[in-house]
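Whiteboard transcription, Tuesday session. T.W. wrote the structure tokens on the left side:
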């Protein structure tokens, strides 16, 4: 690899992060890679549900009793999440955490029917009350919890690319888990980003050429366990409080990683027919869906290619 390509990996936000960028100066290139890692760690400190001191944890802890003062950045992302909820008629809903916290995929435990029914009433994005002017968030009822796991990594890679643009970088890639954002091309040729086969870790279902685009994949294979032949995984259907099972994976391509992240989760919950209809209605976004039988489905723009 040429010396001007600066490449590094880290584990941040509970996932693998990969950065590549082009800069002719070695010291500056390394410093910019480090700045991306710093930005991802900053967002993790702000939005992680697993860090007690994060702003998101404060909302979950106190938001049912009173309004919680948080950063304008967090309020903005929560409001963007609510707009995706409205767009998808509730298929995307960050209050899924009202039930989601009761699943433990490492120990293969899940809530019984009685507890699930009791917790499920907390899932409703309309329970979130935000005030952008005051920069506050409150939860409309006790028991509501939020988790930005379906959008925060996409937001983080989008922010990272924006940071690199501010420093004059024209060619870069940032990946965090299933979310990737590329800046420019790979100096004369497109970036090739692979889409993992949902049932074979070492295989790809396709590689997509990208230029100034984002790509996000949501799958049922990252955090899951099986019980009596049923797969329980982390993508919760807000309508049921149970794992969504109409598809195995969804990949969305588009101009903004925050949106592709939220949309890939949404389409996973919506299933093939409704998911394709949603993506086909959005300018600049495309999708590949692997249904529960392993069959591939493409949005209209990708079919045309």
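and on the right, the sequence the group agreed on:
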């Amino acid at each position: 690899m040429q010396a001007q390509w600066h490449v590094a990996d880290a584990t941040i936000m509970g996932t693998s992060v990969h950065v590549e960028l082009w800069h002719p100066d070695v010291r500056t290139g390394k410093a910019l890679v480090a700045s991306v890692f710093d930005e991802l760690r900053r967002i993790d400190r702000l939005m992680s549900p697993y860090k007690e001191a994060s702003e998101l944890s404060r909302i979950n802890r106190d938001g049912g009793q009173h309004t919680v003062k948080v950063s304008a950045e967090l309020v903005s992302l929560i409001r963007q999440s609510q707009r995706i909820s409205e767009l998808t008629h509730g298929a995307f809903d960050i209050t899924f955490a009202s039930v989601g916290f009761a699943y433990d995929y490492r120990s293969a435990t899940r809530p019984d029917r009685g507890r699930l029914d009791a917790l499920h009433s907390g899932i409703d994005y309309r329970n979130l009350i935000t005030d952008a002017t005051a920069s506050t968030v409150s939860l409309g009822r006790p028991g509501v919890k939020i988790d930005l796991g379906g959008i925060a990594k996409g937001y983080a890679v989008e922010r990272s690319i924006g940071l690199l643009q501010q420093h004059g970088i024209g060619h870069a890639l940032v990946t965090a888990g299933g979310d990737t954002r590329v800046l420019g091309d790979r100096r004369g040729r497109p970036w090739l980003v692979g889409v993992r086969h949902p049932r074979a870790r070492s295989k790809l279902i396709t590689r997509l050429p990208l230029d100034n685009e984002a790509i996000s994949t949501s799958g049922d294979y990252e955090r899951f366990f099986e019980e009596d032949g049923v797969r329980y995984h982390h993508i919760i259907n807000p309508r049921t409080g149970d794992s969504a099972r109409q598809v195995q994976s969804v990949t969305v391509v588009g101009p903004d990683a925050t949106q592709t992240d939220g949309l890939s989760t949404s389409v996973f919950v919506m299933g093939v027919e409704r998911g394709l209809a949603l993506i086909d209605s959005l300018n600049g976004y495309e999708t590949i869906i692997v249904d529960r039988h392993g069959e591939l489905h493409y949005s209209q723009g990708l079919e045309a290619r």
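Someone added at the bottom: The mean pLDDT is 96.
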